[in-house]
Amino acid sequence: MTDTQPRSNSRPAAGRDGTGRDRRETVVVVGKESVGKSELVAGLTGTTPTTGNFRGTTVDVERYESDEFVFVDTPGILLGTDTQTTRTAISAVEDTETVLLVVRATNIDDDLEDLLPLVQGKVGAIAVTFWDKVENQAEARDELDALADDLGVPLVPVDARNVSRVATDGGGSAVDGRERTHLVSALLDADEFPGQVTRRTGIHLDPPATILERPLAGPLVGIALLLLPAAAAVHFANAVASELSPEVRSLLAPAVRWTSDLPGPLAAVLGGDYGLLSMGPFLFVWAGPTILLFALFMAVYKNSGLVTRITTSLHPSLRHVGLTGRDLVRVVMGFGCNVPAVTSTRGCSDCTRRTTVSAIGFGSACSYQFPATLAVFAAVDMPWLVLPYVGVLATTTLVYARLIAPERARTASLAAEDRTFLQWPTPRSVWREASTVVRSFFLKALPVFVGIVFLASLLDYLGVLDVMGTTLSPVMALFNLPGETALVVVLGSIRKDGLLLLQSDGLGATLSAMTPVQVLTAVYLAGVLLPCLVTAITVARELSPRYAGRMLLRQAAAAAGFSLLIGWGGAALF
Questions:
Q1: Does the global pTM surpass 0.90?
Q2: Which CATH architecture has domain 22-192?
Q3: Using CB atoms within 10 A of its CB, is residue 487 exposed (0-12), middle (13-18) or buried (19+)?
């Protein structure tokens, strides 16, 4: 060891120095996926995370602050992959001095063998999670103590779900939780990590298998579980919106009438058909509940370990189309909101990330698009169309992914860790995960939504939308659709709630005269011709404007081709 003295002897006390700078030491938290890092640090600090860049990186990390330290929670490491998140985690380790290494008690030897070379020469401590899964803890603790002596680095066994900043002593007074005290002490007494482990504990537990591991039933159950959040979220949103939407519109009606006295452009932006006051209820009454419930479902899946099991189950079937099981989970995330789904593809392999982003833009019917689609089907008394719609959307998305995926993506390995334990998530961990998604929606998607409302309102005020609809009307005949649906396709390409125009009074007669195949074709074409502008802007930021432009052109061509097949093939069959 280069320094055999406890580092706490030379470490300044937490607080601020004479210049006002924060003297708390930064600790980078690093570990493999699904080891409980985020839950551990959230419990350790008792705070909610703030998102930001770490020392010049372009990928967001979460920061947690306690009295003693500032913890930087990095993305889970997937060794042997080229994911952006893994590169970010490794870079964060290289740029800091103190590391909290998190490994699983159920597979501690392999985790240390893989991760110690990454932190060699750094100082810190090791947190051993999933300790509650170890059966003979007394014997295992002796093994940990011997391992700690061998490594020269403190090891602290914990149950990440139950690490608490505050506990209660015998007299009812608030004190630091025992596990928290041990972790803080270990970091204060941090020592240098070796580059390898020479002693093995022999501690290894295999989580019990479930139906998801069965060859035939597993993928079917996995798909059903992935579709459940979308179905439940949309059902919940429809139930809430049917009750709240009339009330909200009634409350806003005086404000909308007041805008009629304003100058023309301002009246259009605020109270026009596509104005902020007119579309606001749809955002908060329809999209808001959908995103919240979907985020809660996915948080439960992630924190229970279920999402990792589903990922592994679906991968053998999906890799033939150029996606991995992990990629499909992100595509399904897009049913809540495309923005966090696209952002989460930072955890995809470089060879599949662009295919995954394209699949999200094409087939992830977000919380605007899906409720609007259901509303149109309900308006024409054909709610049963949702089943063929979902089937067509899923099938064409997989075909589209297969067509655009590079050859090397079809041989990509999943790079998944060993089978994870399934466990009941805590309410705290679920809310922390879900609130991150909701916050991303309001901080990233909402500002773009306002900009799109502004643009659409002005285009409507200037008559540009009507001209575009009229110009494109003859094109609709190519898809066996009435010319009046052209404006719906235009607005659906800008904003997915533009689909609602199909059930407006102006198109009511046209919609009622359309066959089921025509309704399905119109809704499909308007929904997938282009990703909404929010998604397109997010893709441009995440990858590049050039790629976003290519993606738009490619998606438009594929959507047109599929719509031709649906429109004319469906008419021939039915």
A1: no
A2: 3-Layer(aba) Sandwich (3.40)
A3: buried
